[in-house]
């Protein structure tokens, strides 16, 4: 056997790594130790068989690992993605490294180089209407980058220690390095698994009420995926007009669809200016029952979701089937996300008091003053009592889906009981913009989570057409939009005429009007009104030339104008918009015009007040500055507490208020009040009886005395 000690080979070893360089290699060392025996069949054959089996088993094992993970969707989770990468890196080393016959120093560097380079490898799912090609790699934000840096540092440290230890013996450097390779692989694996530990599998269950609701849940999905978690969405397609998903980063989006959904006939969509539609709750109830039936009757869907073994589920409070489904799927940790304002019915489910003396119902107007009048408090109390009556309509409405749930999965707890097991409630509201009310540690404000990213970036340049509009108004520009759910073609003609007339009056301002039919511009005799089918609302609000925002006061619009520091004229139409408008008016951010009182004169007065009274602009700027500089950022709060809840399922019970276990009468101390009332009544009756006896005794005494005098 020839010993490879040529000058070419020496240059190869020298180029491999100066730290590892030696004038001898493994072949030389073995030859010196065994001599001619190293080439005898007694040594060669067992060696070839053993190493061949190791090579074959390693190749087959890693290949099977890749195939199983790639073909089994239930295994598409963070830990398995890392194992997939490790298996691929081992396969590449077996194929590309060992067969090339290079020495251990190359193998050592291959181990440290291949794994980081293979980080972008990902699994792809088949395309579908609501799935995405992009499978999120398992990473945990900044932590991941730290782990890769530590890997390199540890690798270099081990190499240095090996060098120092082996300087004593010049013949066994490579052999010791070979012995250290398993240690290096263990270190690599430990660091990789440490990165994967923080990743969770999360299921978001949502009813598609409106586009803003989908945008909110989409933002939450993106924040979790960006942090390295795996997120699936189960969407109940209530509103047939809402086809968006709100996100492109979810791993799976599963739709529950019924083409006969009653929600398409809800009154506020057909006639947004109707006054107090009465069939709203019935339509909601029918929709809830229908989609709960469609979901639970699909056993294959339920089993598919159960096999995912989610760490946490997030549901909305607008229906009860999602929360029941989390119990059916065996998901231990639960959270609620609310796309509307601070909902009193949500707080009451957590055992948080909602005093009617100063807190209004979320779907009712809010008084502009902080102190309510007697009539307002009386009205609040009547509605509050109706909502909390154990035998009333609201109690039955909360547990509406329970009969359907019991039909398919008997023994499932009621909605009101399951709601107590919620770890956190994430509100799409900022406490600075809320009415101010009692909360518990379960309530987390994350309003503005869809806006804050834009604050960190440089404002995008507006298209040229908008630059021209903004420059055309000598005193500034006003935006007018009624949101994504209101078709401007459904706005009554007299209101549209009043709007055009009012806008035309302020000729020094340009008006951008979001309208589904921009062609109406030819029918309007005004040079300062510009109709657009779609507007970049957030980008426009960030422009200093915007002087006012005329809005329906949907919660996303409320948050965007507040973060941008733009005063507003509010035209609320339905749902929580009246509540939002009342709160904003109370904080001095704008003027509220009721939808039943929209006329040319009311619009003229409101616009004149907002555009000419500097207090509105000053208040808006103050709130914008406070929102931008608040210590707890919405996205950080959201992700941090979701991870905490997913890690500790017992958290819900630990931080639960004792009031959740109290009845309505005990919670409000009506039993104590009844006791005191009984004591007072008893004392009053006793006093009355005592006085009666005393009067009777006195009258008898007087009669006896008078009769005694007569006898004398």
TrEMBL record:
InterPro entries reported in the protein's UniProt record: GPCR_Rhodpsn, GPCR_Rhodpsn_7TM, UDP-glycosyltransferase, UDP_glucos_trans
One GO cellular component, as annotated: membrane
Span of domain G-protein coupled receptors family 1 profile: 61-98
E.C. number: 2.4.1.17
Transmembrane region(s): 49-70, 82-102, 672-695
Pfam families: 7tm_1, UDPGT
Highest taxon of source: Eukaryota
Catalytic activity: glucuronate acceptor + UDP-alpha-D-glucuronate = acceptor beta-D-glucuronoside + UDP + H(+)
GO molecular function annotation: G protein-coupled receptor activity; glucuronosyltransferase activity
Protein location: Membrane
Enzyme class at the top of the EC tree: transferase
Alphabetized UniProt keyword annotations: Glycosyltransferase, Membrane, Transferase, Transmembrane, Transmembrane helix
PANTHER family: EG:EG0003.4 PROTEIN-RELATED (PTHR48043), GLUCURONOSYLTRANSFERASE (PTHR48043:SF154)
Similarity remark: Belongs to the UDP-glycosyltransferase family.
Protein name per the record: glucuronosyltransferase
Source organism of this protein record: Bursaphelenchus xylophilus
């Amino acid at each position: 056997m020839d010993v490879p000690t040529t000058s070419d080979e020496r240059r190869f070893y020298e180029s491999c790594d100066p730290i590892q360089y030696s004038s001898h290699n493994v072949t030389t060392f073995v030859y010196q130790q065994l001599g001619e025996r190293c080439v005898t069949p007694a040594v060669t054959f067992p060696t070839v068989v053993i190493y061949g089996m190791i090579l074959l088993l390693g190749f087959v094992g890693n290949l099977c690992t890749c195939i199983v993970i790639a073909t089994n969707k239930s295994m598409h989770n963070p830990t398995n993605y890392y194992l997939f990468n490790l298996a691929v890196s081992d396969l590449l080393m077996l194929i590309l490294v060992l067969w090339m016959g290079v020495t251990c120093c190359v193998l050592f560097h291959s181990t440290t180089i291949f794994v980081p380079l293979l980080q972008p490898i990902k699994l792809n799912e088949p395309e579908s209407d609501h799935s995405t090609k992009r499978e999120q790699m398992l990473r945990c934000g900044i932590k991941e980058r730290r782990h890769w840096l530590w890997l390199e540092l540890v690798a270099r440290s081990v190499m240095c220690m090996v060098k120092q230890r082996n300087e004593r013996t010049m013949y066994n450097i490579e052999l010791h390095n070979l012995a250290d390779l398993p240690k290096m692989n263990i270190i690599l694996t430990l660091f990789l698994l440490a990165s994967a530990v923080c990743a969770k599998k999360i299921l978001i269950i949502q009813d598609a009420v409106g586009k803003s609701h989908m945008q909110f849940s989409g933002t939450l999905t993106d924040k979790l995926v960006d942090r390295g978690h795996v997120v699936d969405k189960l969407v109940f397609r209530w509103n047939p007009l809402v086809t968006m998903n709100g996100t492109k980063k979810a791993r799976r989006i599963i739709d529950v669809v019924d083409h006969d959904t009653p929600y398409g006939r809800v009154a506020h969509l057909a006639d947004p200016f109707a006054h107090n539609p009465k069939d709203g709750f019935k339509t909601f109830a029918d929709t809830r029952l229908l989609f709960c039936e469609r979901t639970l009757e699909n056993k294959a869907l339920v089993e598919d979701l159960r096999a995912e073994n989610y760490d946490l589920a997030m549901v909305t409070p607008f229906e009860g089937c999602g929360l029941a489904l989390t119990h059916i799927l065996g998901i231990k940790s639960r959270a609620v996300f609310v796309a509307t304002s601070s909902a009193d019915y949500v707080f009451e489910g957590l055992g948080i008091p909602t005093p009617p003396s100063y807190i209004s119902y979320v779907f009712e107007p809010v008084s502009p003053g902080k102190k309510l009048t007697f009539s307002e408090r009386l009205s609040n109390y009547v509605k509050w009592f109706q909502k909390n009556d154990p035998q009333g309509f609201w109690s039955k409405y909360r547990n509406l889906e329970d009969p359907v749930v019991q039909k398919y999965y008997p023994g499932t707890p009621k909605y009101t009981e399951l709601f107590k097991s919620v770890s956190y409630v994430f509100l799409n509201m900022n406490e600075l913009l809320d009415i101010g009310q009692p909360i518990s540690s379960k309530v987390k404000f994350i309003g503005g989570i869809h806006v804050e990213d834009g604050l960190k970036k440089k404002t995008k340049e507006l298209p040229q057409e908008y630059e021209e509009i903004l420059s055309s108004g000598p005193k500034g520009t006003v935006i007018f939009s009624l949101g994504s759910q209101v078709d401007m073609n459904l706005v009554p003609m007299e209101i549209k005429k009043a709007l055009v007339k009012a806008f035309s009056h302020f000729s020094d301002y340009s008006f951008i009007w979001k309208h589904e039919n921009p062609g109406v511009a030819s029918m309007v005799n005004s040079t300062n009104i510009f109709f657009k089918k779609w507007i970049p609302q957030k980008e426009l609000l960030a422009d200093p030339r915007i002087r006012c925002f005329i809005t329906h006061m949907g919660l996303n619009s409320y948050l965007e104008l507040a973060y941008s520091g733009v005063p507003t004229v509010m035209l609320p139409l339905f749902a929580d918009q009246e509540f939002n408008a009342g709160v904003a008016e109370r904080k001095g951010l704008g003027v509220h015009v009721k939808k039943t009182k929209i006329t040319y004169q009311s619009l003229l007065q409101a616009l004149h007040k907002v555009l000419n009274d500097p207090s509105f602009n000053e208040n808006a700027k103050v709130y914008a500055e406070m929102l931008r500089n608040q210590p707890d950022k919405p996205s950080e709060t959201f992700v941090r507490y979701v991870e905490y809840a997913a890690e500790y399922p017992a958290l819900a019970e630990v931080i639960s208020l004792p009031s959740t276990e109290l009845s309505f009468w005990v919670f409000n101390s009506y039993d104590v009040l009844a006791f005191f009332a009984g004591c007072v009544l008893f004392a009053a009756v006793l006093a009355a009886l005592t006085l009666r006896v005393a009067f009777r005794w006195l009258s008898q005494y007087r009669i006896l005395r008078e009769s005694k005098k007569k006898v004398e």
